Amino acid sequence: MWKFIYGYVRGTSHSVSDQKCQDYCASTTIGSTIVAACADGAGSADLSHRGSKVAVERFLEVVRVSESRPEETAIESWVDAARERVIEEAAAQCVIPRQLACTLLVAIVGTDWAVFAQIGDGVMIYNGDNGYEFVFWPDIGEYANTTRFLTDEDYRNHLKIDFKDRNINELALMTDGLQMLALDFKESRVHDRFFEPLFRTIRSNTDEDSLQKSLLDFMDSKRVNDRTDDDKTLFLAIRNNNDVSTNEPQQTS
Asked: The pTM is what?
């Protein structure tokens, strides 16, 4: 059985400018498999909050999972569908797709396998053999504060897909608003001390409402906001291997 929580909060810079939160995250379970996706809208794109939302929602709509690991072509087609939905939304809003630009991070974790896909920055973490490990190092682009987006014409050239043939019991996804706290950029590794108390809290706390509030309070705390003024998304999941029953999706706004 998977136990998971997630949330996204507006960054202090967007609060000052009265902009919407441009992040979005959602998740569901299909049997013993968990599917999670999050997206971060481009700060310079007026409707990127719409791009993030429709991209994540469409990916979760089209993903199909069985007991076996999906093929790479299937992952690509699901990401393509998410991009197509963003393009459709841009047309509906009478703007160019760039105005809905967003990153996309997705994780599909089965009983003894996992598939990850990513375009842009942000990071996905799982429990490895020697502590927590990242799937892909954030794609920060050629210049400061730049990255790749799902709306880019050459997005397929920057789509990263990775397969893990192993049991994963702890999983985290986050947008770039938190990656400076979670990663050691000098050593190119994960800060275990960032994740250990988070996963420990989820395992020990059975009150979902309390967990959800704690997560949102943490992301919007002075301690975090002093380090980053960006929008922040954090998805956390743990699994009890002795129980593979389904869990209902959660959503927060």
From this structure: 0.91
